[in-house]
Amino acid sequence: MRTLLWAALAAAILIGAVLYFNLWGIASQIIPLIELSKRVEVSEPSAFTVPEGFRVEVYASGVPGARVLIRDPKGALLVSQTSEGQIVALPDKKVILDGLSEPHGLALIGDILYVAEEGAVKSYAYNADTKSATYLETIAVLPTDGGHSTRTLIPSHDNTSLLVSVGSSCNVCNEADTRRATIMEIDLKSKEASVYARGLRNTVFMAYELVTGELWGTDMGRDLLGDDTPPDEINILKKGGNYGWPTCYGKNVHDTEFDQNTYIRAPCSEPFEQPSVYDIPAHSAPLGIAFAPEEGWPEEYWLDALVAYHGSWNRSLPSGYKVVRVVVDERGMPTGEEQDFMTGFITDDGDVIGRPVGLLAEPGGVLYISDDRAGAVYRVSLIHEAR
Fold it and tell me: Is the bond preceding residue 230 a cis peptide, omega within 30 degrees?
């Protein structure tokens, strides 16, 4: 009898595991996983490599789960500590808000601080002198039914609305909630929220390109189509655009493993679905994106995109774990040329010592990089910079 009970329990566990992994499309494959849950100590700057003429220093340590970075009017860096449920001001690590539910996106419009938690976007009266924030209101409620939970904010050009990313609830599926796998737009006057762009599996970070002012977003492709498929993406996000997921990926490639429907027209074609503007090696997990300003940066970097590759967790040979430079031409479009900008987050032996997340590029040849594995913020600057 005891044997039968144990057998039944084992069967129940197996069935539950299969159901869970099927949600993410994993049941039929065994994937080598990199151990990423254990926190590591902040590495010495000498562990990292940056281009000649730049240097790396640890701007702040002891900031576990550091993700989004923004600058306040008095010069403090505000950082969301998603895993810790708080927002802090650097460099003194003063806690501005605590007890939040996976806070991620941050935006400042005047003296109003907007914070995106998994299930809501909230506004706070922010005092830059005291580095304190007082709750005002919840301006939007967001889905909390599992899957990708980070929500990132960026104001519209005229500051009348906020764009917020809402990732998919699954690896690949047809979403029941039309707000999933989208960029939502929240009107700050009416508080009405609508879908700005869709077909975006997990566009965690966005930034305005400096030549055209167009909105770029990094997007993570689905898992379990092999080591090299599908690519991760950079998209130019246009209002009303459909970027293809879950049916299409990359430059309008049809995902026939997931979607086996028959179409009258060719699926994954313009103007119905928008192709990526730049493809990134699969499983690199692109997150933070920023553009190098002309002021104080070497001329060869002017207006180029800097992108943080958070790094793979499900690839036979790890990929990502670095910050790269994507060269942009005079029209504001990627040339196809990519160069490493900051490496050393993974050792030659495969030990992961850091994972870059958020980027903040500033005049003077300065780039701030958050690291949610080492709990640190790094500062990359020109060696001849006046201090």
Answer: yes
**Cα distance between residue 340 and residue 336, in whole Å:** 13
Single out the residue of 337, 176, 321, 172 nearest to residue 249, CA to CA. 172
Q: What are phi and psi of 10, to 5 degrees?
A: -60, -40
Provide the 8-state DSSP code for 110: T
3-state secondary structure of 16: helix
What integer pLDDT is reported at residue 41 of this predicted model? Answer: 65
CATH for the stretch 49-382: 2.120.10.30
Per-residue model confidence (pLDDT) at position 373: 94
SS3 state at 22: helix
DSSP code per residue over 226-285: -SS-SPEEEEEE-TT-B--TTTEETTTEE-TTT-----SSPSS-TTTSPPPSEEE-TT--
For the chain, which residues score pLDDT lower than 50? 1-33, 386-387
Residue 21 has what pLDDT? 41
In terms of Cα–Cα distance, which of 332, 379, 382 is closest to 358?
379
In degrees, rounded to 5, the angle at the alpha carbon of residue 6 between the alpha carbons of residues 5 and 12 is 90
Nearest to 167 by CA among 143, 185, 191, 186: 143
171-185 core/surface letters (b: 16 or more CB in 10 A; e: else): bbbebeeebbbbbbb
Q: What's the residue count for the chain?
A: 387
> For residues 227 and 283, is the Cβ–Cβ distance under 8 A?
yes
Are 67 and 84 in contact, with CB atoms under 8 Å apart? no
Classify residue 355 by burial, with Cβ atoms within 10 Å: 0-12, 13-18, 19+. buried
For the chain, the structural domain boundaries read 49-382
Closest by CA position to 54, among listed 387, 386, 380, 337 = 380
Nearest alpha-carbon partner for 362 in 75, 53, 65, 44: 75
d(C-alpha 39, C-alpha 362), whole Å? 29
Q: What single string gives the DSSP state of each residue in 311-355?
A: --SS-SS----EEEEEEE-TTS-EEEEEEEEEB-SB-TT--B---
Residue type, 88: V
